[in-house]
Amino acid sequence: MKKLNHFLFPSIILLIFLSSCATPSPVVRLVPKENQTTWEQGKQFVSYQKNDFTIHCAYHGIDSKYLIFDVEVINNSPEDFLLAPEQFIMYTDSGKWDAISNQLVYSTFPIKAADPEHELLKLEMQESVTIAKMKNNQTAAAVVAIAAIPVIAAAAISDANDSKNDEGDEDDVSRTEVAATTTVVTLDAINDGQANHLYNMGTISDNQNVWQQYALRKTTLGSGESLRGLIYFPKPNLELYKDLRIEAPIPNNNIYFNYSVILYYPSINQPQ
Questions:
Q1: Verdict on whether the full-model pTM lies above 0.70
Q2: Per residue, what are the HEC states of 133-171?
């Protein structure tokens, strides 16, 4: 029976290891369906002009939360135009023209682009909460340190009295050691929490920089003006869809960009 256990245990470990192995995620590429495109720094742009507006659009990339597009809007009309990125919409199919309603009909729900102003507001609120938690941690650390002084002092006096009276075993842990250890453990926990808050502050700052510096922000475009930036769509499960359509709003109309979803499945044993 013992010999069987010697063989069984490594087998169980191997099964656990194999069942816990992660598989690579598919690599995503979005390819424009339009034939006429231009390339810039590895990005394939499609350009459309309609109603005195020109829009250039290219797939930029993907992260854990968003599908990202590089978009430039040019206002050639005589009127001002409020460019709001949250009005851009993504559909997970190309749509079909309905002659009765005289419009495109989609089989999936629209996905609205993220609003940078709303995202920045959320980040500022997270920042405010994190700063408050850091201040509370600093206060807690100071209170623990101050409160520990008389406790440790009292413990030391009790230990000294026990020593004079020859009470207790030499192997017993002293009251002073218990008080000091408890204080150190508590302060370490507070410091760990503070380190986590500092890390969160760094993450918040990085995200703020993305929305402030790279995102297409809400802007009133005057006649002859243009604006370029990144538009972020909440990422759908791209393994379920073959087509995407981006709908860009312009006055009294929309401009559409159609993409094919291409997924590459790397092998974990693929040579580097």
A1: yes
A2: HHHHHHHHHHHHHHHHHHHHHHHHHHHHHHHHCCCCCCC
CA dihedral 196, 202, 206, 209 (to 10 degrees): 140
Domain boundaries along the sequence of the chain: 23-115+218-264, 120-211
Mean pLDDT by 10 residues, the chain (272 residues): 53 54 86 95 95 95 95 96 96 68 68 96 88 72 60 54 55 55 63 68 87 96 96 91 91 91 83 59
Angstrom distance (rounded) from CA 224 to CA 74: 7
Distance CA 237, CA 232 (A): 15
Strand ranges of the sheet holding 243-250, from the earlier edge strand across to the other edge: 27-32, 253-264, 243-250, 89-91, 111-112
Both tokens of residue 24? 């690579």
Spell out where the chain has E strands: 27-32, 38-40, 43-50, 53-62, 66-75, 81-83, 89-91, 96-98, 103-105, 111-112, 219-221, 226-234, 243-250, 253-264
Residues whose CB is less than 8 angstroms from the CB of residue 249 and which lie 6 or more positions away in sequence, other chains included: 84, 87, 88
- d(C-alpha 227, C-alpha 177), whole Å: 66
Residue in 193, 230, 201, 198 with CA at minimum distance from that of residue 214: 230
Cα–Cα distance for residue pair 161/145, rounded to 1 Å: 25
Q: At what angle do helices 116-164 and 175-213 cross, to 10 degrees?
A: 170
Domain covering 23-115+218-264 in this structure, CATH number: 2.60.40
- Spatial distance between the Cα atoms of 108 and 96, rounded to a whole number of angstroms: 12
Q: For residues 43 and 230, what is the distance between their CA atoms, to the nearest angstrom?
A: 13
